Amino acid sequence: MKKVFFTILAAMIVMSLAFAGCKGKTGPKPEEEQTQAKPASGTGKASAGEANHIRLEDDYYDFVNGQMLNNTKIPGDASGWSQFYKLDREAYEVLNEVLNEVLRESVNNRKNEKEGSLEQKIADLYLTAMDMEGRRAAGFGGLAVYMDGISRASTIEEYLEQAGKIYNDLGVSSIILPQWSEDMSNSTRYALYFDGADLGPGKETLEDSDQEELMNHYRNYISQIMEDTGMKKEEADRAADGILNLQKDLAGSALPLSKQGDPDVIYNPYTGEELKKLFPDGTMETFLKAADLNEQDQYIVVQVDQMKKIGGYLNQESLPLLKQYTLFCLVNDFAPSLTPEIRDTYLEWNNLRKGIKERKTDEKLASELTQNTLGFEFGKLYVEKCFSKSDKKDIESMIRLILASYKKQIENLTWMSDETKASAIRKLEHMNLKVGYPDKWPNDYKDAKVLSAEEGGNLIDNSLSLLKAVNEVNKKKYKEPVDKGEWGMTPQTVNAYYNPTANEIVFPAAILQPPFYDPKADFASNLGGIGMVMAHEVSHAFDSSGSLYDENGNYHVWWTKEDREKFDELAKQVEDYYSGMDGFQGRKVNGAQTLNENIADLGSMACITAIADEKGSDLNLLFRQYATIWASKYTPEAMLDRLNTDSHSPAKVRVNGVLSATDAFYKAYPEIKEGDAMYVAPDKRVKIW
Ligand SMILES: [Zn+2]
Question: What are the residue boundaries of the Peptidase M13 N-terminal domain, all occurrences included (predicted)?
Answer without folding.
Answer: 58-438
